[in-house]
Amino acid sequence: MSGGHYYNPRMVQIIQENIKTDKKAAGYAKKILDEAEKHLSLGNDFWWNFVTNNSLPRGAMPGERNSGCPECGDAFLNKYGVYGWVCLTENNRWKIQCPHCGSLFPSNDFKKYYESGLDEFGFFREDLADRSLLVNELYPQYGPDKYVDDGKGYIDENGHSWAFIAYYHHWGVWYGEQDRSKNQTGSIQNAIRHLAYAWVFTSDVRYAVTGLLLLYRISKVYPDMDLNVWMRGKGRPYRNSDGHSLQGKVVGCIWETFLSETLCEACDALLPAFEKYPKEIEEAFLGFEAADVRKIEASILDGIVRQVYPGLQKAAILGNEGMHQCA
Q1: pLDDT digits (tens, 9 = 90+) for 261-285
Q2: Which distant-in-sequence residues (6+ apart) come within 8 Å of 305 by Cβ?
């Protein structure tokens, strides 16, 4: 079995001893465990279905550079900045909200549209989705197309592009720096981080099971995640942390270093659970895919860990000096 290089048995023992004897360590562990319990409370079905593929773009900003809110304008921008939008991730609503005026975007029920386009593997395909659902439901004072986003964005009457769903997909679904804000960002990245740490801190198999299930699901999409497919569109419709290279996997190539580092660290922490609890893990996976622990491990290694170096070679994972080395 793999893993356990950084989080080797001695390291895990030291960490768990520190939590027992040091108040600061215990306090930090409690914060992580509280977050991990929230992730567990959502259930494995939620996390299995939460992972997305490359069929929808990602964007670090919902509008063009230094755009405010479509409704309240620069009042939002001046107070909250370009990353200040709230992602309403509870029940995966596919909505972002302006914290200044409270307006919600997009105006259509994208969640219903997204679910109408899921294939037999649970991933979105635009050709399967019901486009009759792409209608303004929130702002009756406007026409039926106002603020409607089919995933690729919305163009307003002035020709300005708005990437509401791409922003949610970036910050709400995938990427979020730890403790960056209170805006519920980075559901997948933070869930993986918290579950892996919780497993290291406690050796409680519950955290390992959900963490490995999430890693396995990610391993099925991560090799094909390619932001360049979306970034090279006319007028560069999505803004990302790519240093104008248009490169990245889930997110822009610069911030992708942080995401891939989180995923690989979680792999190192969680993979040793296969050896300790193979039966429990296999039983948990039966409801999703009948895979034995070796097949699960192989998928995680091939689909995540072994994707990082090729990603660096293609500049899809490439940050400032030191960032991609950590990844």
Answers
A1: 999 999 999 999 999 999 999 999 9
A2: 264, 267
231 vs 244: CA distance, rounded Å: 10
In order, the DSSP letters of 158-191 are TS-EE-HHHHIIIIIII---TTS-SS---HHHHH
Residue listed under structure tokens 């999505």: 238
What are the C-alpha distances in Å from 134 to residues 12, 66, 89, 115, 148? 50, 27, 20, 13, 6
Token pair of 147 as six digits: 């603020």
| 199-246 tens-digit pLDDT | 999 999 999 999 999 999 999 999 999 999 999 887 778 999 999 999
Residue 83 CA to residue 62 CA, distance in Å, equals 9
User: Cβ(85)–Cβ(99) under 8 Å?
Assistant: yes
- Angstrom distances, CA of residue 216 to CA of 61, 242, 325: 29, 27, 24
Structure tokens at 53: 């593929």
C-alpha 133 chain-centroid distance: 25
Distance CA 187, CA 185 (A): 6
Q: How far is CA 122 from the centre of its chain?
A: 16
The reply to whether the predicted model has a pTM over 0.90 is yes
DSSP 85: P
114-127 burial: b if 16+ Cβ within 10 Å, else e? bbebeeeebbbeee
Structure tokens at 270: 């969680």
187, 171 in Cβ contact below 8 A?
no
Let me know: does 73 contact 156? Beta carbons within 8 Å: no
Length, in residues, of the chain: 327
**To the nearest whole number, what is the mean pLDDT of the chain?**
93
> Could you tell me which of 308, 276, 275 has the C-alpha nearest to residue 294?
275
Q: Is the pLDDT at 1 greater than 70, yes or no?
A: no
